[in-house]
Amino acid sequence: MKFKGEAATTNVTSEVFLEHKRKKTWIDKKSGGHCFMLYPRSLYITWNSHPYWTWNCFKETSDDNIEVAKLLAVCWLDVRGKFKISDLSPGIVYELVYDVKLTKGASGWELPVTLRLSLPSGEVRDRQVSLLEKTRGKWIELNVGNSLTQSGETREVCFDIYQHEGHWKTGLIIRGAILRPKDHSTP
User: Which InterPro entries match (predicted)?
Assistant: First the structure.
């Protein structure tokens, strides 16, 4: 299964799994930039155990099984991640997206989710996205934001998807977060 926006085999170098399949890396041939997929086990998910979330495996492009996190029911959605800027290629504008799916029976998404990008400079960028009208049953990308990487940067970029309103939400599946050059190769 190819990730939307992930380059076909002819446009990327070999994909390598890191940290016991918690991350994957590849090189985008168009930009030469390092790309990363952070799977749910490398993210901080509030209330990440049963009865709030389940962890299921699916087959990726290879024969490797990858875990996804499926929301059963929470009223406090909070998924966070962080990444060292020094692992990215300098001088490239990167985009960060959450790769998610809403099940056919997903509910409780009347209010928008907030996507937050916290940069090493201290700048915080928030944007709200409504999931109510998003396609059900298909993987979609939620763009958290873009950032230019600087040579010699050693700090981290942090990213969140959250919705803290007091009503219950169900049916969100998180495949992970993708960091890739904004003008990446396409299949």
Answer: PP2-like (IPR025886), PP2-like/Lectin (IPR052147)
Prediction pTM value: 0.85
Query: Is the preceding omega at residue 90 within 30 degrees of 0, hence cis?
Result: no
Whether the CB-CB separation of 58 and 39 falls below 8 Å is answered with no
What amino acid occupies position 166?
Answer: G
Looking at 85-141, list the stretches that DSSP marks H as alpha helix, in order from N- to C-terminal side.
none
101 DSSP β-pair partners:
173
pLDDT at 185: 65
Contact 155, 149 (CB under 8 A): no
Distance CA 55, CA 179 (A): 22
CA dihedral 15, 147, 67, 168 (to 10 degrees): -160
CA neighbor of 155 nearest in space, from 121, 181, 129, 127: 121
Chain centroid to Cα 151, Å, comes to 24
How confident is the prediction for the chain on average, in pLDDT? 86
Task: Give burial (CB, 10 Å; 0-12/13-18/19+) of 170.
Answer: middle
Per-residue tokens: 48: 């990440």
The 10s digit of each residue's pLDDT in 131-158 is 998 999 999 999 999 998 888 888 999 9
